[in-house]
Amino acid sequence: MASYFDVVRERDPAARNRLDMILNYPGVHAICLHRIANALYRSRFILLGRIVSTIGRFLTGIEIHPGATIGKRLFIDHGMGIVIGETAEIGDDVTLFHGVTLGGTGKDKGKRHPTVENNVIVGAGAKILGPITLEKGSKIGANAVVVKNVPKGCTAVGVPARIIRPEDRAKKAGHSN
């Protein structure tokens, strides 16, 4: 767990020490409770997993379905209002800000929530909807509504979200090759 505290300290300049993080960081609480709920859920103690998940939501304001798959070093900053659906998959070293939804678009069966690959940052209030993929290193702007895949290293902004490619940013800044 020591490496996780290092991640929190690295991504949040307000993080003071481990005791502060243990006592006052709802993202830390939510992830710890999700790990327990997920283990129960996958061990077919589905109701107990859902109960632990509900307790986590009550205590933190962060709703993570116990069936969601979460990788290593997820950082949830100011997590209030985050929703992560049952078939969502989150890779390693992802950052989610408050109010993010990784949700479905209806009552479809099977995979219905997003896949977030490694090293993705999702801005406050963003809604990522449906069985889409945010590829490695992509960034989602605050309040964006994303309903299509976001390619590797690109940024999605707006409602509905549009893709900004790294080379587009370089041209706009006058750094064309």
From TrEMBL:
It is an enzyme of class 2 (transferase). One of its GO terms (biological process) is cysteine biosynthetic process from serine. CDD domains: LbH_SAT. Its EC number is 2.3.1.30. The keyword Plastid does not apply. SUPFAM superfamilies: Trimeric LpxA-like enzymes. The keyword Aminoacyl-tRNA synthetase does not apply. GO terms for molecular function: serine O-acetyltransferase activity. InterPro entries: Hexapep, Hexapep_transf_CS, LbH_SAT, Ser_AcTrfase_N_sf, Ser_O-AcTrfase, Serine_acetyltransferase, Trimer_LpxA-like_sf. It catalyses: L-serine + acetyl-CoA = O-acetyl-L-serine + CoA. Gene3D superfamilies: Hexapeptide repeat proteins, serine acetyltransferase, domain 1. Keywords: Acyltransferase, Amino-acid biosynthesis, Cysteine biosynthesis, Repeat, Transferase. One of its GO terms (cellular component) is cytoplasm. Pathway: Amino-acid biosynthesis; L-cysteine biosynthesis; L-cysteine from L-serine: step 1/2. Belongs to the transferase hexapeptide repeat family. This is Serine acetyltransferase. It comes from Tindallia californiensis.
